[in-house]
Amino acid sequence: xxxxxxxxxxxxxxxxxxxxxxxxxxxxxxxxxxxxxxxxxxxxxxxxxxxxxxxxxxxxxxxxxxxxxxxxxxxxxxxxxxxxxxxxxxxxxxxxxxxxxxxxxx
Length: 106
Hints:
This protein has 106 residues and is mostly helical. The chain has helices at residues 11-14, 29-57, 61-72, 81-95. The longest helix has 29 residues, at 29-57. It is elongated and about 45 Å long. The mean pLDDT is 91.
């Protein structure tokens, strides 16, 4: 990607790539852009699936978010754990569901 990329990347996503005590991301901008596009697409793709699971299984929204999160962090996943958490938060935001609490989630 060139520096002409007009994609807005939220600060919450960029911070996934900033080491503690630093202000500069550890990854190049092109890499962060590509990872953001993957994660945003994943969150968008999961909206209908998540809504359907609430209805189909008759479970609470937070239960669906937890189940989806478990699926995103399986061994061999294309997402890091931090990216998976971001995707779940973005999914909750897109669905206007309460933000998840990650105390029990890995």
